[in-house]
């Protein structure tokens, strides 16, 4: 697990890479975000940064519903400077809060550490998306990707499953072992329930297993890379059907 100060360092590093996007790349299509150009991605992420900073600034007792604000993004090359301002504002706000300080998020009551991890991961994935648009995607840092695997199960899988009928009967009670090959401690087991996925660290035998670089395992959960990029073991239908049911985009 990454320490909170390392989440902030990752956010600053990956956000800085996005802010440094050259103007001639802004009109490139982003294959992993259909319908978006690189500029659209930059604007989206800047809006998300301000959204997160607003949640933190309003405090844990606020009942206001917030949405990303993107309508002041400039046209042309100036958008990267606009993004840099949003990134810097988020970093300033995050650094005002201790990791265990109560906060609020779109899932309810959390601590400030939730937003540190969430924004580091959001930025890492979209940095990968942008670089992939010009065929130069650098993997998500391995430990951070492991944090992302846990967040995918803890925060997003159940959230998306609850919006529909949940997992089909054939998947309820099944398990998936995830194995990152670039670290000794990069192993997790997902346990599947109707409208939830729980995650535990450690080695275990699952009904299905995925094995590969931790970044690729994480990006496969977010449908950035195909499952076929990874080694698969056991029942090869479990993971594709899980991802179809979760529909995380």
From TrEMBL:
GO terms for molecular function: metal ion binding. Residues 145-241 form the MDMPI C-terminal domain. Residues 15-130 form the Mycothiol-dependent maleylpyruvate isomerase metal-binding domain. It comes from the Bacteria. GO terms for cellular component: plasma membrane. Pfam families: MDMPI_C, MDMPI_N. InterPro entries: DinB/YfiT-like, Maleyloyr_isom, MDMPI_C-term_domain, MDMPI_metal-binding. This is Uncharacterized Actinobacterial protein.
